[in-house]
Amino acid sequence: MKKTLCMLLCIGMAAAMCACSPGEKKAGDAPKKTEGESKGLIGITTSMYTNEGLTIMCDTIKEKVEEEGYQAVIKDANLDQAQQTKDVEDFISQGAKLIIVEACDSVGVKSAFELCNKADIPVLSVNQVLGDDLLELVVGSVTSDNYTAGYEVGQEVAKELGGKGKVCILTYDVAFVCRERGDGFKAAMAENEGIEVLEVFDGVCTEDAAMKKTEDWLQQYPDVTAIFGNNSNCGVGIAAAVRSAGKTDDILVANVDGLSGDIRNMEDGALDITAVYPMKELAAEAADKAVEVLKTGKCGEDPRLKFSLCTIDDLDTYKEYWGIE
């Protein structure tokens, strides 16, 4: 019994000595987080993580909020709004401090926003364009000027065609970000009496679907002189079909996004005109807005960032932007 008591006293003295060692925290020192500890979960859900621009955006936001001491998780809805709503539900059940949504469907995402509101979790919308009724459900929005991007690409297409030609257009109106691009492009076409729009086909935003539809058009409209795609995936698909048909010299290919795949296609002569998405700038802006919401509960105005028109004359500038050798 005495030996046991002696041993306990020794342990207690050793612990007291350690507690007073110079390397330990003193009263008033900020507590250091242990490994794995965080300020809370930040949920990030995107429509298509495999899209290069959205990958950059999500990864940049994740890195920024993790620097602030939060844990961030990215979920890919793969263009499925029902899946995205389920992902939001999962984030809510995990007690997320903030949910960042790049919506699949500009209308269908409403139920996900309402779930966040009901759970009293702020939701930040990024990249996607929303109607006024949905903007009331989010703490903030970060987007770009997609209409002007489509319009300026359309103007350049009309210029290259000399104001005369036959055009096919791929749209994806369920996502307002793509709808605005298509609307801008169509407005530019309407300003040229000599340009005939052969067909506007809605519902395409993937490479395979764009390639298949372009192949159909090349059979249906052998005299088509220009084809427009609403995003980078469409641009790559259109370019592949036109290249395969041996018509790169006969058909003008244009799109909006100007990601690295587009710039490579332009270098190869398979893409003629694009509008480069300021994705790095939007990613940084979205990350800053996320941190602002976490710190203040508020968010500044939507920046509506501007695209940059790119033709073969601007190739070197955007090869450097995307780090293409």
First-residue to last-residue Cα separation: 77 Å
State the name of the first-level CATH class of the largest domain.
Alpha Beta
CATH superfamily of the largest domain: Response regulator
Shape: elongated
> Counting H and I runs of at least 4 residues, what is the number of helices?
12
Give descriptors for this structure.
about 325 residues; alpha/beta; Rossmann fold; 2 domains; five-stranded parallel beta sheet; Sugar ABC transporter substrate-binding protein
Q: TL;DR?
A:
With 325 residues, the protein is of the alpha/beta class. Helix content is 46%, strand content 17%.
Describe the structure.
This protein has 325 residues and is of the alpha/beta class. The chain folds into two domains: 41-144 and 281-305, Rossmann fold, CATH 3.40.50; 146-276, Rossmann fold. It is built from twelve helices and eleven strands. It has helices at 2-19, 52-67, 81-93, 110-118, 132-135, 146-160, 176-190, 207-220, 232-244, 260-267, 279-296, 315-321, and strands spanning 41-46, 71-76, 98-101, 123-126, 140-142, 165-171, 195-202, 226-229, 252-257, 273-276, 308-310. The strands form two sheets. The chain has a six-stranded mixed sheet, sandwiched between helices. The protein has a five-stranded parallel sheet with strand order 2-1-3-4-5, with helices on both faces. Helix 5 (132-135) links the parallel strand 4 (123-126) and strand 5 (140-142). Helix 2 runs parallel beside helix 11. Residues 1-34 have low confidence and may be disordered.
